[in-house]
Specification:
Layout lengths: L1 E3 L1 H20 L6 H19 L2 E8 L3 E3 L4 E10 L8 E6 L8 E5 L1 E2 L5 E8 L5 E13 L5 E16 L3 H4 L1 H9 L10 E12 L11 H7 L3 E6 L5 E7 L7 E2 L2 E2 H18 L3 E7 L3 E4 L9 H9 L10 H11 L5 E5 L5 H14 L4 E7 L2 H8 L5 H26 L3 E5 L4 H15 L4
Parallel strand pairs: 3-10, 13-16, 13-18, 18-19, 19-20
Antiparallel strand pairs: 1-10, 2-4, 4-8, 5-6, 5-9, 7-8, 9-10, 11-12, 14-15, 16-17
Length: 439
């Protein structure tokens, strides 16, 4: 299909006043106006024909992507018979979770012999799920820039958007797993923990409280008890999928930031010999996976986390945490990712967590609200900003009060920026494991 360009529209707009001047100054020359319009139309058609014809076009879309990570979409076009002109332009219609506004535009670069063109659009998925790439438009101009050839193709590509696992693949974490006591090959950790492992002859520097006096009396020399960190501990990562966790933080919903941090910690826990399960809830329970016991089954946790949906509703903490507690047969470590926007919902959360902490080790994880802190610290230039700063400061004080009440209940609280909660969580998990208070 041949379509006129913006240059043609500009020429036609400039010719309209000129036609009025000709009609006023020389009425007998009116025939020149339609002749000029016909000439412009012919030039547009010729320019469109000289733009060449499309031989082939290919769109390459990866089948899988991770939320928040760049996704390259490649367009390859072969155009024959071109007589010059600018670079072809492509536009892709897709699901809004793949690109802002559901559209991605790109320019194609010249390839071999001027006939093959290639362009790459880097889109960043903003939500998990399955996104469709629906339609492709391609336009390439003629040598005069008056007309362009344009084609449109229906597409049926689907992209599965997974949680972000870049922290799991990071060199820092891999080096940590290789060198730390919870290495890639699970081994016993002697000297700490709560599970008795063996007796060893006492040496200077050992903790005297570990001396086994009965055995030492029989053997006439000192023996000390050695312990190992208990393995096979049940770890549950619980996600609040309600409205507060769907709010964006630095471009991505809080729940996606939480899922990424939880999967990173899950990978470390599996390498350490513990069992991991995922639990998600909003108004009702959305997800409860069986316990995964082997790092080779980590993909099951990734697939389950990808299914956590976004809910613009308040979560039901009472139902969710009561259901979780009923399903756990032994003392477990529960990592709860949540946030709160008003004191009422916070009260319900505190009441439910207080019952949970009586039987389990509870770790509450929330992300710093940098936007709220900036509003509270902003210079009040006018009354509107002053009211905004006062409201933000009030919310920040309420937030700090809620976290303090959780700590008083015996809940371990992590409050950190979104890009640090994963590593803070790993450090806290290892500290709790070394203390032997999970099982």
């Amino acid at each position: 299909m041949i379509v006129p360009t913006a240059r043609t529209a500009t020429l036609a707009a400039l010719a309209a006043p000129l036609a009025l001047v000709v009609a006023a100054a020389a009425p007998g020359a009116w025939v020149l106006v339609p002749a000029a319009g016909m000439a412009l139309l012919i030039l547009v058609l010729l320019d469109g024909l000289m733009a060449g014809r499309l031989r082939d076009i290919t769109l390459t879309v990866p089948a899988d992507a991770e939320v928040g990570e760049p996704l390259p979409i490649t367009v390859l076009a072969e155009i024959a018979g071109r007589r010059g002109g600018g670079a072809p332009q492509a536009s892709i219609q897709c699901d809004p979770r793949l690109a802002t506004g559901g559209r991605a535009d790109l320019a194609l670069n010249d390839g071999v012999s001027g006939e093959r063109w290639r362009g790459v659009a880097q889109v960043i998925p903003s939500r998990r799920g399955t996104g469709a790439v629906e339609r492709l438009w391609l336009r390439w101009p003629g040598p005069l820039g008056l007309a362009s050839q344009q084609i449109s193709r229906e597409l049926g590509d689907q992209v599965r958007i997974w949680p972000d696992l870049s922290p799991v693949r990071s060199p820092a974490l891999q080096v940590f797993l290789r060198d730390a006591q919870f290495g890639l090959i699970a081994r016993r950790i002697r000297g700490e923990g709560s599970q008795f492992e063996s007796l060893a002859e006492y040496e200077p520097g050992m903790d005297r409280r570990r001396i086994d006096w009965k055995t030492s009396a029989r053997q006439t020399r000192l023996f000390a008890r050695e312990f190992e960190s208990e393995r096979n501990n049940p770890i549950v990562f619980a996600f609040d999928c309600g409205q507060a966790m769907c709010e964006p933080i630095d471009g991505l919903p809080r729940i996606d930031r939480a899922v990424s941090a939880a999967l990173t910690a899950s990978y470390v826990a599996l390498k350490g010999g513990d069992r991991v399960a995922l639990f998600g809830f909003a108004r009702q329970v959305e997800l409860m996976t069986p316990f995964v016991t082997d790092a080779r089954a980590f993909h099951r946790l990734q697939s389950a986390a990808a299914g956590l949906d976004y809910h613009a509703q308040e979560p039901n903490f009472t139902l969710a945490l009561a259901t979780l507690s009923a399903r756990l047969e032994r003392r477990s470590m529960i990592v709860l990712f949540s946030d709160f926007s008003d004191p009422t919902s916070a009260e319900l959360m505190i009441e439910s967590v207080s019952r949970l902490v009586q039987r389990h080790v509870v770790l509450f994880v929330t992300m710093d609200d940098a936007e709220l802190d900036a509003m509270a610290a902003a210079d009040p230039a006018d009354l509107a900003r002053l009211a905004e700063a006062v409201s933000a400061d009030t919310l920040a004080r309420q937030r700090a009060l809620v976290l303090q009440r959780l700590r008083q209940l015996g809940v371990d609280v992590i409050e950190a920026p979104w890009d640090k909660i994963g590593y803070r969580l790993i450090d806290r998990y290892l500290a709790i494991k070394r203390a032997g208070i999970i099982g």
